[in-house]
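REQUEST FORM: STRUCTURE PREDICTION
Request ID: SP-0412
Submitted by: Lab K.M.
Chain count: 1
Length (residues): 253
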Amino acid sequence: MKRIQLASMFAAALALGIVLSWNTHTAAQSSGFDAGQVGEIETIVRDYLLTNPEILREVMSALEEKETAERAAKTASAIKKYNDEILSSPANMVLGNPDGDVTLVEFFDYNCGYCKRAMPDLTALLETDKNLRVVLKEFPILTEGSVESAKASIAAANQDRYLEFHTGLLGIRGTNDSASAMQVAEVLGLDLEQFESDMDAPETLKILSETKTLATNIGIEGTPAYIIGTTLVPGAIGLEGLRQVIAETRATN
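STATUS: Completed
RESULT:
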């Protein structure tokens, strides 16, 4: 009976000790057990784990779930804190219904293969969900060509051709850079002199800098990344996945 009581008293310390890689001797001593009890506990712990090794998997699974929940809560808090910068920045590229009841924000890179493959998903959402507001944020993190492409996209927006330029650039199979951006600009018939000037304008560089800072504050490290409501969706999850998150957000509004 004494052995069982000791094991029960030490259960919480045992689980924490396993997860944090403490040795049971140290954990037991810090819990106020005497030397004899420490030795007995170590034997109980060893025998129990050898007999029930699956407990380690259960503990690690519980830890992962706890950490995932904590990360989600931290991200949701950051999204609320920076809500104005996310949703209402004057530099936002807004598509769809400007007064929609749900806003989907995408951080993307023009050289991100997943972003290119996800473009049809966004197009389908815009075509089928007439109450959806979409905000696109250039987040060039992969190559210098990504930076040039993002600057070009902002320059195209100054001539009210953002969506066409955005779609055209993401439709290119190869690597995007200033050359491919210029090709798309020529096809669209943009004023090339103004286009090139706007690419390197201080206002353009400021937009990219602000987006980079915002992404860091929220915890976005890759592309594509979506914010829907207070939910951060890291990575491409497909059309149906996006629809599901949108529906869940709409239901809580």
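NOTES: Residues 83-252 form a domain with the Glutaredoxin fold (CATH 3.40.30.10).
Reviewed by: T.R.
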